[in-house]
Every structure is written in structure tokens, then in C-alpha cells.
Design brief:
Blueprint (H helix, E strand, L loop, with lengths): L2 E4 L2 H13 L17 H9 L7 E5 L5 E5 L11 E3 L5 E4 L8 H8 L8 H14 L9 E4 L4 H25 L2 H4 L1 E7 L4 E4 L4 E10 L3 E6 L2 E2 L9 E6 L2 E6 L8 E9 L2 E12 L17 E2 L4 E2 L1 E5 L5 E4 L4 E10 L8 E6 L2 E2 L6 E5 L3 E6 L8 E9 L2 E12 L13 E6 L5 E7 L11 E8 L6 E2 L9 E5 L6 E10 L2 E2 L9 E2 L3 H9 L26 E8 L3 E7 L10 E8 L6 E2 L10 E5 L6 E10 L2 E2 L9 E2 L14 E6 L2 E5 L9 E10 L6 E2 L9 E4 L7 E10 L2 E2 L9 E2 L11 E8 L4 E6 L11 E10 L2 E2 L3 E2 L9 E4 L7 E10 L2 E2 L9 E2 L12 E6 L5 E7 L11 E8 L8 E2 L9 E5 L6 E10 L2 E5 L3 E5 L10 E4 L5 E6 L9 E5 L2 E2 L6 E6 L2 E6 ...
Parallel strand pairs: 8-15, 19-26, 101-108
Antiparallel strand pairs: 1-6, 2-3, 4-5, 7-9, 9-13, 10-11, 10-14, 12-13, 14-15, 16-17, 18-20, 20-24, 21-22, 21-25, 23-24, 25-26, 27-28, 28-31, 29-30, 29-32, 32-33, 32-34, 35-36, 36-39, 37-38, 37-40, 40-41, 40-42, 43-44, 44-47, 45-46, 45-48, 48-49, 48-50, 51-52, 52-56, 53-54, 53-55, 53-57, 57-58, ...
Helix pairs in contact: 2-4
Length: 1483
Amino acid sequence: MSASLQVTQKQQHHHRLQQQEQQQHHYESSCYLSSKSSVSQQLFSTYKASSRRLKTSVKTEKGQEVVKLSPLPKRAKRTYLAMDTDKEVIGYVIPVFRANHDVVRGLMEAREEEVTEEGINYVAMRNLFVRESREAMQVKVEKKTRTKHIRESAERMELSKTMEEWAEFRKKMNPDSLTHRPEFIVKPRGQTIWEGKTLKLHCTVAGWPKPRIAWYKNNVLIDAKAHPEKYTAESNYNMHSLEIKNCDFMDTAQYHASALNVKGEASSVATVVVKRFQEGEEAGPLYPKPHGFCSEHGVTFETTIIDKFEVAFGSEGETMSLGCTVIVYPTVKKYQPEVVWYRNSVPLKPSKWVHSHWSGERATLTLVHLNKEDEGMYTLRVNTKSGFDTYSAYVFVRDAEVEVEGVPVAPLDVRCHDANKDYVVVTWKPPAVEGSSPIMGYYIDRCEVGAHHWAQCNDSPVKYARFPVTGLVEGRSYVFRVRALNKAGVSRASRVSEVVVAMDPSDRARLRAGPSAPWTGMIKFTEEDATVGVVPGDPTDVVVTEATKSYVVLAWKPPIQRGHEGVMYYIEKCISGSDTWQRVNTGMPVKSPRFALFDLAEGKSYNFRVRCCNSAGVSEPSATTEEITVGDKLDLPSAPGSPVATRNTNTSVVVAWGASKDVKHLVGYYVECSVVGTDVWMPCNNKPVKQTRFVCHGLTTGENCVFRVKAVNAAGYSQSSSNSDAVIVQAAISVPSKPTGVTLVEAVRDYMVLAWGEPAENGGGDVRGYFVDYRTVKGDVVGKWHETNLKALTTTSYKAENLKENVLYQFQVRAMNMAGVSKASLPSAALECKEWTITVPGAPVGLHVLEVRDTSAVVLWEPPAFNGRTPVNGYYLDIKEAAAGEGGWKGIHEKVNKMKYVKVTGLKAGTSYVFRVRAQNLAGVGKPSAILGPILAQTRPGTKEIYVDVDDDGVISMIFECSEMNEGSEFVWSKNYQAITDTSRLTIITEKGKSRAIFNSPSLEDLGTFSCVVTNTDGISSSYTLTEEGLKRLLDISHEHKFPVIPFKSEMAMELLEKGRVRFWTQVEKCTTACDVEYVFNDAIVTQGKKYTMNFDKSTGIIEMFMDSLEVTDEGTFTFNLVDGKAKGTTSLVLIGDEFRELQKKSEFERAEWVRKQGPHFVEYLDFAVTQECDVLLKCKIGNVKPETEITWSKDSIEIAEDDEEAKKIERKDGELTFNIGKISKMDAGIYEVFLRDERGKDKSIFKLTDAGYQAVMNELFRVIANSASNIQVTSTEHGIILYSTVTYHHEEVRVGWLHKDAKIAASERVKSGVTGEQLWLKINEPTEKDKGKYTMDIFDGKDGVKRVFDLSGQAWEEAFEEFQRLKAAAIAERNRARVVGGLPDVVAIQEGKSLNLTGNVWGEPVPEVSWVKNEKELVCDDRYKLKFEHGKFASITIASVTTADSGKYALLVKNKYGTEAGEFTVSVYNPEDDESKEGQKS
């Protein structure tokens, strides 16, 4: 029987075992390659393997002999390298063994040409890394069966398959495939190492030709040959390493490994951090390091810094020198330490502003022309071979005197960012002093390097401390400066920025980085496709990087297809909602992929796009940006938290404050100081600080100062914080005060547990621990005090052990802070050491607080050490404000709490609280625990809460993030504030500052409160309570994620369109481009056609289906079925019965309306309106009218002709017809009609101003009248008080009601209401105290009523009542004052010798006093003058036998308490004889 061939994996394994058992046999069927350095030797050994045939006979399981043959060699020396006709190595041939030697020989035959060692090495390494070597196939020969034909057929098929596989392998191993760019198989790994140690970075690189490796430190090439004492670089068989010896702080950097060959370049980066060792708290980079032995010089260098510079103050423009004397012991000839200066922990480099000098003994730093940028913490670091020492002090730089009073000081820290060919972003920091008024903006100036002319970049001041400068010339260098502006003027210019070159960033990076790798000695020229004359492609990734109300900055990526000549760009804008695009830079295209747009309308929204251009033309536009609204995006920072000032030294105060909670891109904080009693605020720092703590130097000892803080960002300044408490500038800190209240918590036979209260005063520093002393007491004799603990206690409780039973002890406690140990507390009472027999439990211990927030906190504790007679069954938590007395304690809960924690809610933000806990058992409630606190109820800035997330696969997890992780910090999860013991319920995954607790199988067993605490932090913690309702909701969400449903923004709806068309539509919240819609009516799929029109806008998610009309057969259910991947969605609308018929009627109506509107028609039918002047208008709007359209008005079917009086009331303006009725009356009631007619059609509108229509008009009129009523005013008369309000117009049918104290006022003689013209009034005659109160005027407005309220009480009542009394008194006085009412003539002529008798009528209440005067002299009743006053009414004067001497002016004077009046008259006495003689003389 002939042998057949069969290959199986099981037999392959069987033959490997045979290889191990028979090591004397050598098979060429396998090759194992090592990644170590000996790989080439192994390859050579394989290469030189013997070529003679090996025949091995083995027994099979059935006892048959199996013969295994090696391939017959063609010659004695053969190669396993596959070569092509051009003598290029194309692969490594793996022999395949078959029983048919001719076939095997054909597969394994190799070329006779020799190959180089490098080719052998490369192919071996390629097979190692690419993993494309094939394992050898094992052969088993066995006897044929009668199915020989079938077996041979299978054998041929298998052989054919093998031949195809080898052809594919040879195809892969052609020269083009062999040559490829470098690839990092093993990348260098970042490491953290201690100072003084040696570090080694490793990497493995594949590539052909063999790449060259270069190492960089912070993008600077490392020359290992020039610094062999520091670096050693090795490269062995594509394995590369960099060794850094004796690492120090300066070796902290990013190290790049760059691999280069003719096909390209690859790089990888690793970060190295060098740390120093120190017990306790880890030291920073500038803290002193203990000096160690220097093996290089055989000594240990000790460094001492003396003659140190102190805190320094300078002004802008001055020159300042800082210096220290440095002593290095021992002195070694020709050895000098390294002296480095730092500002704010950043090394200083020599510049025109900074000069440093080292004389060998003294280190000096000179700051030339001080500016505010120079302010900060300056540190001198002296590095020796044994370590380093540092010294630091702060330098303050005050602003120079301003030239104009009130102008702001200069901005600072001008920097340039994102520089490009013709564009750069300039930023700066606002100054500390704004001047006499707030800063309105800034001016930016630029100057070319080498020139002296400054050009202003912006015409109008910019508010933000950030501005894009455009229009730069490529290749030129610029510097920038900034000036601030307020109402008083412009500030001095800031210090100029660093020089910036307008050039492509990629060119700048190449110049900065230097050579990327050593030259490989090979230059490869490739022939590229010609791109001259090719229009560039469109830009990509157009985004808005900045958006303010002053400008918008665009950025984009250049096109991939751009040619050799470079590209420039056009920018286009479009107002949202329009399709009109406007080119912005029409004059000149820009070169940079950045552009700033100015002069945009604030509040409007825009879209932008970009086009590329070159000499061949302009590209297609890029994709448009999202809609951008022009306006400020960066808000002012919120005010910082209240500052806390504490004493520091005799000339400094430490100020700490809470960070601004609502702030983006914080620049820092400015601290201001003011002496109490003045309102003058002075800046403490002229350069903003980002820390929330600052030491204010330069203060006067003994002054009482307050401080405030304001935050600043690019948008400007925040509101100043509240003022700190006043603090006296003087030195601190002192030792704390004595602890209080040493009490016994528990007693057993040989130990006692003590507790005490914290000291009332900590002396200005935190209490760091306590020391406990004890002494024995026997009667009145006390022993000496002894220490119980040598190491300070960190808690306010202590277990004093090794005591004697039944002995009395006293205890005292002392507190310690950084200033020292306090005095001892008062000794406790004599306490006997014996086991307690108390039935109630002892005090709980270990009180601590977690999750402190503005309004809540979680208090936790441990059970008491002493339970009492029975176990503890619950606890009570008490709380009080820290400032309250002992009477302020109150319980958090009434019922006993069985848990060992309580979440306290309802706290007041910013208030401090203290807590205590009492334990309870069956015997009662025990003593309270030691007091916890005070705890300030305040959410620390940056606090985050646990939140629940459900991912796309439906996995439910809780996530807690912490941005303040320290070294050694860990996330510790617990359930119900107890360690989680059942780990099968949760899977915890922690990545950097985020921890995720994943529910493995969420169920009711997971209900409870989950909390997470970050260790080694200041109590960062949070919790999440999972309720049954919450779990159900999460499970529903999980189900939705596992089996997603396409979310609909709105369910299917229907709307009627013009012509009666029907639109069915819905909108999905989101969908992909693969989403499909199936339109269904009554379970039948409908398609686009004459009856149905469909549309699906996938960008908006709107799905629509249109129907021209509704027919009877369209009654039923319309459905949209959506499929989007594995997500599905369905929405339906049912139109049947009355709803369908109503819709059908509306559709027919809409179609009829459309037909009506083809001719002249009413856009708005005839209706009424009431103007503010209370005129009634009938109006309507008409549309589609022509000049020849006839418009006719009629009332009560009677046409209103043009010559009628009512025709004057008709107006037409801009398609609106108006009939002005004016002040309406019942005469105007009727039916009004308007007719429109022309050749296209006609339309009619009717308004019935009768019954209901008339009442509706009157109700609207009442509403206008009621709303026109003014507020109630008050006036007083002699009769009483009047309340009144005026209206625009009063109609007789308007109902007006008055209420007093919400009760209707009944009309009476004393209280009346009415209307006079447009005045509505209420008269209160003879008001009394009962009339005080609220008065309401209720005017009917057609519905409910409009109320006007006046409160006639208080001052209003007093003023009105006082005025009434005054007017009333005046009226009474006027009525009752004394006066002469008649009886006296004006002139009396009487003949001499006659008697004169005159009587005057007098009135007055009370009866007036009466007197007579002549020529202003009072007359007295005597024989000549008879004066009488009778009945209190009649006053008479009688003069018997008058003479000429009685002539003159007389007056009757009457007087009472209300007034005085005089009745004057003239008496003329004449002599007839004298008159006659005068007449005779005349004649």
C-alpha cells in the first residue's frame, strides 16, 4: 500500500513531544527566534544547518511505522532567505514537509546567490515583530485504504491550497512591502525616581531600512558623547536605551525618542519626574535637601546662606538688586556650586531685564527697570554635588506715579499666542488699580522689531483682556504693548511683549526643535504628482475659537490638496435665516488659518465658511460653522469668598479667602487693604495671584486694617468680596489656651478613658496634639504630676492604662501648637479607678463628619466603650450653633436612631455648628460624647457629588470624581457608611481622579446609601442614596439603552395647509443617515405618488406626509415606522368618526377660503376697537384689491353715500378700513356691513352692533375707562375729606362702587359718592377715627372690575385730617370774626352846631369789643362824645353841637378772638356863613 499525507494540529503537538524526548534528532521543520541579543547567532546556526536527509522511524498508536523525511537538498549549503530576481531579500522561508519530495523540493527551493548578514538579521526581526512566520507542518504516513481515489483528490486540493498560501506569502514579502517607516514596538515608559538614582529608558523600534535613533530632552537634542558623565545611549538589534546618571531635580522633563529612515519618522515621549526623599511631608523642588556624600570629590558639601535679602519693595522704572552670601564647606579647588535664581518656582533666564552674577562667594540678581511682571517670590537655589539649599523672599513692585490724576495704571504680562503668518492673539492681565473710574477698555499697540514707530491696532477700546491682531507681514518680527482707558484718560503703556515672528507654526516648530534626528546617510528622491495649476481643496474643521461682542475668531485646517505654491483664504459670513453669503476680506485673502471678524452686529446670529485660493482659482466652500450669536461669552467672575485676615509679623498679615465659585479662565486675585476709619483702599499686590492665600507685607505695626479681595479674568474684575474682620498688624502666633472639661468616659479595674474639650483659643495656630498628666490623691494629700504619653495625642480622648484599682487619680491636659505647649487645664475631680456598675451606656466616641455642604453634613461615630447593663439599642444626636450657649442644644430627631450616622439637614450656610451624641440602652440614655466641632457649614469650592450613569450597553454605575488627589489618595466606597463586604454586588474601577462603582446585577439588595471618601485629602466625600423608585427608574433607562427606541421630539401630528392640504408630520430627537421610514395607512404601506407626498429631512429629524385633500376613504390610522440600526420607533395618528368628519369639513373650508382669497377679500373681518380716548372704531383689513374694486359701507341695510354725514367717519389706509363712531350711544346701534366687488369676485363682512354686539362694545369701553382711572388721590375741605380719581372719559352707564375696609359704603348725608366731569369722588363729611382704613374704588370693566386702592391711615390720614381741621377752623373763624356789617356812611357832611348821631351794625361771636377812633386816636366817652354799644349789635356815637374841630377821619373798631375790623368814615363840618363869604369873594 502506498502512503498518503494527512496534517493535523494534534499530530503536530505529538511530534513536538518526540522532539523533546529525542534531542539527538534535528528537525528543520521549526525555528524559534529569541528577542535577546543572541538572535543573530541562532539565525546563523540555523543558516548553517546540515542538509543531509534525516530518516526517522517511529511507531504509531496502531503499531504502524511512520516515516518522516526531511526535504532533499539541492546542494550542501542552502539558505532560508527568499530572494527575488533583483537580489532583494523578500522573506524568510519556513520549510514545509510532505511525503511527495518533488512537491516539497519545488516549494522550498531557494536562489543560489549569497545574502548579507544585515538582510538575515532584518528578516529575522521582521518575523519576530510582525508575527508572520508560519509553523512547520508535520507529516504522517500511513497505509492506503480502498478509498484511494477520494484521499488523493483531497490531497491534491490541500496541496493546491498550500500553494496559494505560499504565493500570497511571497507577494507580501516583495521589496515594496519590506521598506516601511519606523514603528515603535515597545515605547519608552515614563518613570518617577528619587534624586541621586540612575534611570534607564528603553524602547524597541522596527523599520526598513534600519532607522536611526535620537533622544531629546524638552525638544533639545541630547549629545551623549559630549556628556558621557551624564548620559549613555545604546542601540543593539533594534533595542535602544538612554541611561541618565545621578538624577537631580533638573532632570525632570519630557524625553522624546525619535526614529528616522527614508520612509519617514516616528517618535514617542516619556515623562521623567525626579523626586527627593524626606520623612513626613514631601518637599517641593525648592525645599532644602539633606546633604550627602559626594564620591567624586570625596567630601560632603555643606551649604550655608547668610546676608539674606529681605522682603523688598520697589517702584516701576527702578533698578533692584537681590543678593546673598553663600558659604560652601569644605572648599575644593576649582569647584564652584551651581547658582540658580527662581521667580515663583520658575527658573530665571538672563535677559535685558534680568542680570545674575556669582562672584564665588556672593550671588546677586539685578532687576533692571522694574515692572509689575517682576513681582513675586524670588528663590536662590545653590546646587552642590551633595545636595542643594534655598532661600526665598517676596519682591513687591508698586506702580509708578501716574501723569494724570485718576487714570488707570498700566496693564501687565503682555503675551502673544497662536502666532501665524499674518495673525497673533495678544493677551494681558488687567492692572490692580483702575483709577478714579472703572476701566472702559484697552488699546493694543504694535511695533516692528528694529523700528521705533508704534501703531495702534484697534480704533475702539476692547473690553476683554484678549485681542486678535491681524494684518501682520509674514516673516517680520513684532513686539506689542497695551494701554488701559477710563473716563480720566489713558494709562502708561505696559512692558513690551516678547518678540514674536509672523510665520507658519510648523516652520516655527522646526526652527525651535532643531534637527529631528541624525542623518542616516541616505537621500531618497520620490516623484510626486504635479500639482501646479490645481485648484486647492476646501478647508476642514472650521470652528469659532473665540466669540465676544467685539469680534469673532475663526480657525480651520488647511486642505489636503493644496499644491506647491501654498494657499490663501477667503472668509464668508451669512446672517442666520438667510441664504446670502458675503465675503469678508474682499480686498486681500489671508495666509493664516486664523481670522478675526470685527464690526458684527451684537445679538445677531451668523454662520461662517472659508474658501481656499491659489493662482489656479478658488476652492469650494468649507462646511459652515454652527450658528454663532455675537455677544460676550465670558462672564465676569463671581465675588471671592469672605477674606480671613490673621496676624503674621509686625509688618505683615496673612489673608485667606474662598475661591470664586462661578469663574472661568481665572487670571488671579487682587488683595486690597484699608486702615479702619478711612475709605482709602491700597493694593497689596500689583500682580494677580492664583492662590487663595496671600501675605500682605509693608504694613504699619499697630494699625487696625481690613482687607478685601477681587477676582479678575479676561472679562474684567469681579465685585469686591466683603471686608474681612479688622486685624491689628502685629506678630503672631502664641501658644493655645488651656483645654477644658476633663471628664471620665469609662472606668475599669486598671484603666480609665478620659475626654476633654478643645482650648477656646488656639493661639493663632492649629492645635497639633495634647499631653495628659496624672497624679494620685490620698485624702488631702496629692502626689506629683507624671506624664502619661510621650507622643502628642491627636484626639480629645485618651485611655490611661496600668492604673491601680480603687486608687483615686486626678488628670490634667495641655494642648500644643506650632508655638509651643499651653498651660495645663484645671485638674479633674478625684476619679476612682474601679469598674463601673452604671446601668446606662457610656459616651460614644470617634465622632467625625463627612460630606460637609452649605446646608447639610453627615455625622458618624463609634459605639461607646462601655455599654452598661444591656446592649446599646440606639443613639441621639444633638446640635447647636457654635456661638450659642449651653441652652442652645437641641435634638436632631425625636425617635431613637439605630444607625451610627445621621445626615443633618437644614443648616445655615456659613454658620459653625457643634455636635454631640448620646447612646441609649434599656436602662436609659447615657452621657453625651465629647463635642465635635465647630464645623463650618460650607461647600468647599470644586466639590463634586456622586452621580449615576447608564452607558450605551445599559450598565448602571455610580461615578465620583476628585480633582484634588494627593499622593497616596484612594477612593474608598462604603454602603450605609460601612465597609462593603459583599464584593459580588459591585465592581470598583478607578482611573486617575475618577472612581466608578458598577452594579453587577442591580436588584433590591442594592438599596441603601453608597458613600465614597477620598483618603489623604481634606475630607473630600459624597454619597448617593439608591431608593426603590430610583432603582426602578435606572432599570428602565438600562432597558432603554439595551433595547433602544428612537426618541420622538413630538408625536405624529396633523395640520391643515393652504388649499385644504393635510400635512402629517413628526420629529425625532436624533437619527443617523441610515434611518429609514415606512409610511402605513390602515396596515397598508403607502408610497410616493399622486395622492401622497413624503419627505424625511434627516438633518432636522422632521418626517412629513402630504395629502391634497381628505376623502371618505381616508378615515383610519396613519403610522410612521422608523428603523435606525437596532433602534426602532413608531408613531401613529387615528382619524375616525366625528374627529375625521370635523377635519374633513375644515379641509373643505380651507379650500373654499383659498378660492375666496383669489379675489378681493377680507383678511380680517369687520370688528371693533376702543381707543384710549374712548372712541369706538369699526375696522377690518382687506387684501387682493385693485383700484377698481368697489368698497361699500351700509348701516341697517342702508348704503352710506359719499355725501352722507356718516361718510366722513370712513377712512382707508394701507389696506385697513375704519369707521369711527366716536363716543358711542344707543343711537349708534345697528347692523354695519362692508361689501367688496370687482370682476374677480366679491366678499362681505358684517358686524352686528346690537344686543350682544353692542354690549361687547360697551364692555370694552368700560374696560378702557376703568383702566384709565388714575390712582386715588386725597384732598380736604372745610366740610371733610374727598377721595377722587380721574378717568379719560366717563360714560353714564359705568358703574362705580366704593368700599371701606372691603365693605361696601352705603350712601348717607355724611358719606357721598358721585361724578363731576371726568372725576369720580367720595366725600366724607366730618370725618372721625372710624373713617380711617383702606378705601377701594371698584370700576366695572365689563367683566370683574378694576380696583384702585388708597390706604387712608397713618401719615396720609394725619395730613388729610389736619388739613380738614385747619380749613374748618378757618371757615369758623371767617364766619364768627368781628366785623362792621353796615349803618355807617363813607362821608358825613354836617353843619356846624348840629348834633351828629351815627349807629353802626356790628357782628361777631363772641360779641366783639367796640371802640371809636378819630384820626387814629381813640375817643373816650365824655360830655362831648356819647359812645354806646347796645344789645351786642349796635354801636353809636353822638357828638352834640359839632364844630369844625370835629372834622376828620373816624373809624368804628370791632375786635374778638377771631379777628379785628374797622368801619371807616369821614366827617366834614362846615359853616354856612363862611361858605357865603367865600362865594361873595369869588363873585
